[in-house]
Amino acid sequence: MQQAINILELSEQAKQLARKAMEQQVQLIIGFVPCAEVNILPDVLSQLRLQLPASSIELVSVATTQQEEKLLKGEIDVGFMRHPIISDRLNYRVVYREPLMVVMPVDHPLSKELQLKPHHLDGENFIGTDPAHSGALYQIVTDYLAESHSAPHIVQAATNILVTMNLVGMGLGISIVPHYVCHFQSSNVVFRPLPVSAPQIELLMVWHRENDTPALAQMIDLVEEKSAA
């Protein structure tokens, strides 16, 4: 009988130790858009795992327009997203800037040009972006073309970059995308740069100012070090 009691006590102690270990485990939930997946997360995550080997890091692909709500609700600890940010309860840093590129079908007449200016796009069939899903990209492209007096013919508004690439690859039109999309180049499309005077698009690292998750501070430091390098 005493042996059975001892076994039960040891079992309970083991459960308590397991619960303590779970409580002490650092957890970090990261929301991101594809640009961060290409340009920020690979280096930062490898370093973060070295610093926090017992940490639980979860990556969640979240559109820019959904990240602010998830940050405010505590569903993610840090988000990598585009402008705009509305809430004053969120802190952010600009961690990456990249130029915009014109993407077109591989056999498009404009593919013969080494660089494209806004007037080249005037009247061309154009795959736009849906402002409800694209964050700042829609407004940046719209303003740039308007200021350049270029009026392409919008044939469709894509809800994400993969849709844009598929529509361009099928020959429905050309588009303007962030530079990171060049990493996903296929045999159906080609990319051409815009003039250096064209606007760039920013990637932000955003977090709730009241979030005191230990791993978050280390994540912020690592990303800022990478951005400053």
TrEMBL record:
<dbReference type="GO" id="GO:0003700">
    <property type="term" value="F:DNA-binding transcription factor activity"/>
</dbReference>
<dbReference type="InterPro" id="IPR005119">
    <property type="entry name" value="LysR_subst-bd"/>
</dbReference>
<keyword id="KW-0805">Transcription regulation</keyword>
<dbReference type="GO" id="GO:0003677">
    <property type="term" value="F:DNA binding"/>
</dbReference>
<feature type="domain" description="LysR substrate-binding">
    <location>
        <begin position="27"/>
        <end position="226"/>
    </location>
</feature>
<dbReference type="Pfam" id="PF03466">
    <property type="entry name" value="LysR_substrate"/>
</dbReference>
<dbReference type="GO" id="GO:0032993">
    <property type="term" value="C:protein-DNA complex"/>
</dbReference>
<keyword id="KW-0804">Transcription</keyword>
<protein>
    <submittedName>
        <fullName>Hca operon transcriptional activator</fullName>
    </submittedName>
</protein>
<comment type="similarity">
    <text>Belongs to the LysR transcriptional regulatory family.</text>
</comment>
<keyword id="KW-0238">DNA-binding</keyword>
